[in-house]
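Private note to self, pasted from the team thread so I don't lose it. Backbone tokens:
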């Protein structure tokens, strides 16, 4: 995987810190971060979250 930008790291941490009863999050932030993968779109990473996939752009913008 390509190196994440600072904004992507911060967005991933924000997503990880969200609490939802429907989702059993990984035990550590690092384990969650390792689930992120590059997408076809240059620079965007995709991460499973709950029942969906979130995309995080290089500027930290998060979308589903």
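Design output:
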């Amino acid at each position: 995987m390509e190196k994440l930008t600072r904004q992507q790291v911060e967005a991933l941490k924000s997503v990880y810190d969200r609490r939802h009863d429907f989702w059993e999050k990984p035990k550590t932030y690092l384990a969650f971060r390792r689930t992120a993968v590059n997408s076809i779109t240059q620079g965007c990473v995709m991460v499973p979250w709950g029942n969906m996939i979130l995309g995080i752009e290089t500027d930290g913008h998060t979308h589903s």
